Amino acid sequence: MEALDAYEQAGSDASYIAGGQSLVPALALRLQAPDVLIDIAHIPDLRGIELKGNWLRIGALTRHAEVLAHPLIRQHAPLYSDAAPHVAHPAIRNKGTLGGSIAHADPASEFPAMTLALGAELEIANRNGTRRVAADAFFVDLFQTAIEPGELLVAIHVPVVNANHRWAFHELARRRGDYALVGCGILADVIDGAIAQIRIVFFSVGNTPVRAAKAEHALIGRVIDADAIAAAQAAVIHDLDPPEDENVPPAMRRQLARVVLGRLLGDIARQAP
Amino acid sequence: MSDLVDVSLIVNGSEVSHRVPARTTLADFLRQTLELTGTHTGCEMGVCGACLVVLDGQVVHACLSFAVQASGSAVETVEGLTERAVIADLQEAFHQRNALQCGFCTPGMLMTAYSLLSQPGVPSREDIRDALSGNYCRCTGYEAIVDAIETTARNRAAGGDAAAREEIDA
User: Fold this and answer.
1) Which of B1, B25, B61 sits opposite A91 (nearest CB)?
2) Which of A111, A235, B28, B91 could form an S-S bond across to A214 if both were Cys, CB 3.0 to 4.6 Å?
């Protein structure tokens, strides 16, 4: 791919630019100052949304506004559709891309967290070919992912939801479009009324999207009733280690996470079997 | 970083070509190169919404694109919408309801309202507030802006664009 060669030629100080809705503010604030910007916004291989067997392939350049409205995403990767109205503002959604958001890996962003909740795999291109990385291994640290310098996120592959799946998304923000104080997406596999598998992912609670493993464990094999929800809420406190923040102290974020989790599990319990 | 690049695009229906530094934002290109100063630069980081323009049919921040990225595209600014008279009723409603004080945010407000009112149906006040979440006004408290957009939406739904404009002209 020409873009990968351009990065190689540029040496160390280059950055890819797609929608630019996070990168250009970072340039304006002088948080980043790469010598070379490589515009990838017109590469056809990075576009398109298609169903391939039990996987939905979403091109990295898919814009947030397309995520919001696309019927294949609504049907097969619905947590992205549910999260999309909460991603920034309409004008940002017209230009920002799903791949850009995931590669940027802002821990307060909705789409990286939903990528983890959906159990997606990330297709990454380098000059030797492409590789796929599971979302569980993709988000490494604050703004750090499994993408190596010069590599390019090409597509997001989402295992499609089936009739046993239940899902819910919720976030608490001071104003619409603001970064969430706490947000969460849940994808549950419900068999005979009980939770067979569940992925609970929080955002705005740490350096990366965070899977709430203890809360998940508290729910496996159970019917979601008041006791199960209380057990998950008790467990989730121990899943999260929010950073010190004078506006939103860790104890407040943990309490908000309990509230969000309770609401979401209630939503899932009410969804028709 | 100071490399010059050729930029050719359609702005308000006219083809323009200029050679500008590669990192010139679309907002600066419109304001400084083309002297179309209706597009305002406020925060220059995609928060305040004063720089909104229509790029290939979609409302976007002119401060968050480089001009060279818009090469080959069609851009419409508040000047273009005004000349085409497609927001005349909206502008009249802003005037009537006093939906601005200093007016700095107004071009962006008009852009967001233009986009919202281009969609089918009559938006609720909640829809309007949601759409305006990316536009800052530090004077009015938004109430009059929401009123003006709501009035325009209802007038358009009741009588169509033409009737609404006749009413203003009369």
Assistant:
1) B61
2) A235
